[in-house]
Amino acid sequence: MNAAVNDQANGLRRLMAVSPGRRVAVVGCEHAGVAIVTRNLAAALAQEGKDVLLFDEQSNSQIPGALGAGRVVLIHAKLNESGALSPLVARSDHILVVLQAQAASIKASYACIKRLHTTHALERIRVLVDGAANAAEAQRILANLADAGRRYLSLAVEPAGWVRADPHLARSQRLNVTLVDAFGSSPAAMDYLQVARGLLNWPQPRADNKSGVQRFAAAGSPQRICEPALH
User: Fold this and answer.
1) What is the 3-state secondary structure of 98-132?
2) Which residues pair with 63 in a beta bridge?
3) Residue 149 three-state SS
4) What percent of the chain is helix, strand and coil (3-state, nearest 5)?
5) Which among 164, 131, 159 has a CA at the least distance from the CA of 147?
6) Helices (H), 18-131
7) Cβ distance 88 to 16 under 8 Å?
8) Whole-angstrom Cα distance, residue 133 to residue 144?
9) Measured over all CA atoms, what is the biggest interatomic distance in the chain, rounded to whole angstroms?
10) In a structure prediction context, what are the per-residue pLDDT tens digits for the chain, which is 231 residues long?
């Protein structure tokens, strides 16, 4: 690891240690496009007037923003071989799982959510559906995941919203700019703005809720979990 990467990692470590803003880890369990989602969400938050710092743990790259008290730190999280978050990123205020509106992605993401819950003793995970055909499809997926989390994991799987499939996305990628910045009136860009506004209203966890890993370790082995059928 070179000096620049060390500096970036150290900077993230300091932010995670003492951040007066929101720290959101964005996880794409089986979604190769999660980096695009994270960047568009950052752009939408910026349009809402927030200071945003975006850190890509996948490549150890940092896109700096202004660092005011009202900032949002977005981390494109990298899972290890066991499907767990790094110890640093596990201290985020919120975990946001991004999945595609496809059966394979939904199934893989549920398995990923279960691993994250078991490993880190999470009480709550947010879920965002990317590439939905319409709101009804996204709402159905989110409702099924919420029901499975409640019944089989005793976990609050809460909807963060959805982003519609939008042909403008490919055009923005060719231009090497975010969809939100390039085509702000497109359907997906409006969805990102809606998700960003919702994110800013997520309740911040209490200080006594940040020791879930320690509580879990003291409680012993996790109970056996039966797989639900997600449709």
Assistant:
1) EEECCHHHHHHHHHHHHHHHHHHCCCEEEEEEEEE
2) 54
3) helix
4) 45, 20, 35
5) 159
6) 34-47, 103-120
7) yes
8) 17
9) 51
10) 455 545 556 766 665 555 557 899 999 987 778 999 999 999 999 999 999 988 888 777 665 544 444 689 999 999 999 999 998 899 899 999 999 999 999 999 999 999 999 999 999 999 999 999 999 999 999 999 999 999 999 999 999 999 999 999 999 999 999 999 999 999 999 999 999 999 999 998 866 554 333 333 333 333 333 455 665
**Domain over 19-200 is classified CATH 3.40.30.10:** no
Q: What residues pair up with 78 in beta bridges, in sequence order?
A: none
Tokens of 93: 């205020």
CA proximity to 112, closest of 142, 149, 138: 149
Strand partners, 52: 72
Amino acid in position 65: G
Sketch the domain layout of the chain as residue ranges. Answer: 19-200
Tokens of 205: 């966890």
| Cα(63)–Cα(56) distance, integer angstroms | 8
Can you give the pTM of this predicted structure? 0.84
